[in-house]
Amino acid sequence: MNKILSTLIAASVFSSSLLHAADLPPLQSDTEPNRIDWAQLDAKFGPVPKAGPDLKIGGVSKTLTNEYWRTLGKGYANAAKQYGVTVVYQAAANEDDQMGQLAIAETLITQGFKGLLVSPQTDANLEPAVEEAKSKGITVINVNDAVMPGAVHYVGNVQKDNGVRVAQWFIKNRPQGGKVAVIEGQPGVYAARQRTQGFRETIEADKKFQVVASVPANWSRETAYNNAATILQQHPDLIGFYSNNDDMALGVVEAVHAAGLTNKVAVFGTDGISDAYASILRGELTGTVDSFPELTGEVAMNVALRVIGGQPLPRVVSTPQAIITKDNAQQFKTANRDQLIKLLQQN
User: Fold this and answer.
1) Which of 54, 79, 168, 316 matches a 20 to 30 Å C-alpha distance to 201?
2) Running DSSP on this structure, what letter comes out for residue 48?
């Protein structure tokens, strides 16, 4: 089945690239020059166009087993209520269920949705559905974090910057340098590749640090625990880990604790889920790069309605991120949206 899926996806990506080659180059969301910051949308394009009460937007997520994606859906719901539209949010059973996610997207296409907000499991698994949606005039917005090369519009943060920020923390707070390791997400996914690359390039440029291991854990907390335990056995003098998401980082924290190295090994994640904040405030997880999924969901719905309403938006709308440690976790934990936006503007 996996081989068949890979063949179908490869064929889809090839045909997609032929279809759009004359219009748009393959999307690289981190470096795409045709972009705008989320906070500039109102100033540049004015208010969101009014939508009719019968407008339906579908959300297709990776999985609801990860808090990040549940929180993103909450952002969709917030914005849908604000703008008076209907949103239906569905997700695959787990982060390896590529065919299940594709089936969800294909079903929504047949049900009269005007727009789709999609967060693909890989950079390619939803391409068949996306091409079908485009052929039917359905607006598709690629929302964090896998990036479809043929995507016309993308909403999300600068993935590479997640890793860069963590590396900069190590350089500033561990000036003596040392051995570090990376727990990667799913192989072949743009976000995992960019986060890892941002961390490695930045920390290795310092020359005092050595990346002794960089292994995938497929967004799995259990796999991350096992991989981290192995790395710690091989490198008991390790000073830190960077994980491509928070679920994996929390697995790493457990491995570090089991090895009796909690006060010696710094652990960082990415996403900013509530369990990560709680772990940071307990003094376990060192930090995370919060990409504010609820706000990202709100921005994505905002963008979808603007595109459906005919506004000529840039190809990429960048959403915020901030590095969170015990020093500022309580501030950023706020549920007050106005206060959060103020903090982000200062960040």
Assistant:
1) 316
2) P
Task: Report the sign of the C-alpha dihedral through residues 272, 278, 281, 286, in that order.
Answer: negative
Reported pTM:
0.91
Residue 197 CA to residue 200 CA, distance in Å, equals 5
Q: Give strand ranges (E) for the chain.
A: 35-37, 56-61, 86-91, 115-118, 139-143, 153-156, 178-184, 209-216, 240-243, 266-271, 287-290, 316-318, 322-325
**Terminus-to-terminus CA distance in the chain, angstroms?**
46
Query: Given CA atoms 249, 94, 3, 60 in this order, what sign does their dihedral have?
Result: negative
Tell me which residue has tokens 């961390």.
Answer: 199
Give residues with Cβ within 8 angstroms of 234, minimum separation 6.
Answer: 212, 213
Q: Residue 343 CB: number of other CB atoms within 10 A?
A: 16
- How far is Cα 275 from Cα 64, in angstroms, rounded to an integer? 15
Amino acid in position 70: R
Strand 322-325 relative to strand 287-290: parallel, antiparallel, unpaired? Answer: antiparallel
Distance between CA 250 and CA 234 in Å, rounded?
20
In 84-158, which residue ranges form alpha helices assigned H by DSSP?
A: 98-109, 127-135
* Averaged confidence pLDDT in the chain: 93
Largest CA distance in the chain: 61
Contact 288, 268 (CB under 8 A): yes
User: Which DSSP category does 27 fall into?
Assistant: P
pLDDT band at 167 (very low <50, low <70, confident <90, very high): very high
Distances, alpha carbon 135 to alpha carbons 15, 128, 140, 301, 303, in Å: 14, 11, 11, 21, 20
Task: Give the C-alpha separation, 167 to 202, whole Å.
Answer: 6
CA–CA separation, 291 vs 21, rounded Å? 31
pLDDT of residue 10: 39
Under the banding of pLDDT at 50, 70 and 90, the label for residue 341 is confident
